[in-house]
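Lay summary. Proteins are chains of building blocks that fold into shapes, and those shapes determine what they do. In this project we predict the shape from the chain. Here is one chain we studied, written as its sequence of building blocks.
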Amino acid sequence: MKSEGDKIRVRYKDTDQMGVAYYANYLVWFEVGRTELLRRMGLPYSEFEKNDLYLPVLKAYCEYRQPARYDDQIELFTRIENLQDVRLTFSYKIRRGSKLLAEGYTEHAFINQAGKPVVLRKKSPFLWNRLLKAYDEQV
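And here is the predicted shape, written in a compact code that computers can read:
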């Protein structure tokens, strides 16, 4: 699956008094990117939850290059960076036109409702194979 850009308009409420997007909003935009990527793969979060699977964030990293500003039309590119038995990493790039504004990643664990780590390929071979296929198609 080819990385598609999700378009986001920077809202007034997302900015500070200087009209610059507040830094924590980038992590919210990362969530939009991974949610939409999974949805395009036919794997909305609800599919994981139906299988007693959850994807909490273990790590989040963002490097800010240039500010996004009020009313900017930005584009978010998300891809699966790494897929392991109990972990999944997404990478992100946020652009305004050709300018890179920020890039980063989030790392997630596969856990059950009790908070215990789960080996995805054993717990849900269907979900594992869909993720593996999407990951392989990116390379």
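What the prediction tells us: The chain has one domain: 5-138.
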